[in-house]
Design goal:
Elements (H helix, E strand, L loop, with lengths): L4 H23 L6 H27 L4 H28 L13
Helix pairs in contact: 1-2, 1-3, 2-3
């Protein structure tokens, strides 16, 4: 069975954008309940892991470079969402934030 990677990326992009909106809305709330922050983090991690499997499948299927570049951008978005949601959880627990160093270009 052939996978329509463009359609898959479009669908995954929509999912990531919706989750990004949710993360942006919730992480700025100073009194966000811990259970909501925990659920947000779990949801983001689940989405990121799902996308990691899709990216791996794309690489195994030898998808075009253009599609892989788009997939890498989505993977980066999931990574940023993961750090943002983890940092909100850490903030609520009184822990220092996770920092990500930017990779050299």
């Amino acid at each position: 069975m052939t996978v329509d990677w463009l359609a898959t990326l479009a669908e995954q992009g929509d999912i990531a954008k919706r989750k990004a909106t949710e993360v942006a809305t919730l992480v700025v709330k100073p009194e966000l309940p811990l259970e909501i922050a925990s659920r947000l983090y779990r949801d983001v991690e689940k989405g990121a892991q799902t996308f990691d499997r899709i990216l791996s499948d794309m690489e195994d299927a030898d998808a075009s470079d253009e599609l892989l570049e788009a997939a890498d951008a989505l993977a980066e978005l999931w990574s940023q969402l993961s750090v943002a949601s983890a940092n909100k959880l850490r903030e609520l627990q009184g822990l220092p934030p996770i920092t990500m160093s930017e990779a050299p270009h």
